[in-house]
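User: I'm new to structure prediction. If I give you an amino acid sequence, what do you actually give back? Let's try with this one:
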Amino acid sequence: MFGSSNNNNAKTNSALPKVAVDNFEAYIGKSTQITGNITAQGHYYGAYVLETLYSSDPNIVLELDKEAFDALRFTVSPRPINVNDAVFTGKDKNNDGTSYVVYKGENEKRTAINIGSLIARELSRYDISVALVEKCNDVAMGTSKANSAIVHAGFDAMPGTLKARFNVRGTELMPEICKTLNVPFKNIGSLVVAFSDEEKETLSVLLERGKANGVPNLEIYDANKLHEVEPNISDEAKAALWAPTAGIVCPYELTVAATENAVVNGTDFIRNFRVKKIDFDGNCFTLADGEKSIGAKYIINAAGVYSDEIAALIGDDSIKIIPRKGEYMLCDKSVGSLAKHTIFQCPSKMGKGILVTPTVDGNLLIGPSALDIEDKEDVSTTASELADVLKAAQKSVPTVSTRTVITSFAGLRAHGVNDKIIIDTVRKE
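Assistant: Good question. You get back a string of structure tokens that encode the predicted 3D arrangement of the chain. For your 429 residues, that looks like this:
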């Protein structure tokens, strides 16, 4: 599987000259530590994780490959950076006071254990030792294979939150990432449909929130325009918020492709390793599954619904994850054109509601339900929940029918009790 041709992002560090940056802290300050190149090719997610991970080390010595060095010139804050007697003045691309540079290490390889294929891919670009640890027999066996497959525009998240930041940035990055990895992606846009005057007011709120988040080209369609772009929409629909940057992707193909790319770049892929214990000797972590162990200088916890349990293994009880189960129905390709865009209903506290959307393969997907449960392995479906999904979907597109349903499935989403994305260092007394 790992001999595939998805190696467009293959690492070339060993062939590139290195330049040392000593005492980087003295130039740009403690709060602007270590991240990856966000100027091109879409490496933002891993970059932000690295920035958070290394921000606690003010005395780090950096070594940059040429690509990272070039990126540094355009992404640092507007202060001079001395590199081998050369002085560059860069500009903060994000205008948020953050500077970006890639950590390579102090003349040694540093192991970074991480669970998350895109983070592994990002880390694999650089000359460090990386392992991707998976509790199942393969990647994409959990949330990554059972979700709505939507690349959200970012109008729903509250301004100033990481969710808003990543939604908007993700829509910018996803087309190039998918092109590089040869993964299907379609920029079809999304519609949030209002069925009452009260919901039309909600659309206005979402419009202003989206503008605050930096979502481009949002527009509210009246009923006539909505029915023009979505001929099969319900006659009861009064208006809709149009977000042209939203898209759809194949989530499990993206996960597999990112993993393959990381492995081609030298990442160790360790399967069937369910972490049961983590020890720390002051310098190195040891992860154990009861039979085998792995040593790591750093750990990135991206364990989804199990991320709170992984954090607890090293004494961090600040995270609480509630599995939120969503049930879906997948319809035959013969009705894939019933929706031309991703059709949402107005969101509630449980999520963005029931959607009707085409898939990248030409099917029609409806769902999900939203039920908070305790069992982190429960992906069963029930007749009652699926009936509710169908009824809700027919509110948007009345011609949706069980006659064309070819399968149903359920997925679990890692829902934090505070409904926030968590990127932080360990909190342990």
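You can read the tokens as a compact description of the fold. Here is one thing that stands out. Confidence is low (pLDDT under 50) at residues 1-115.
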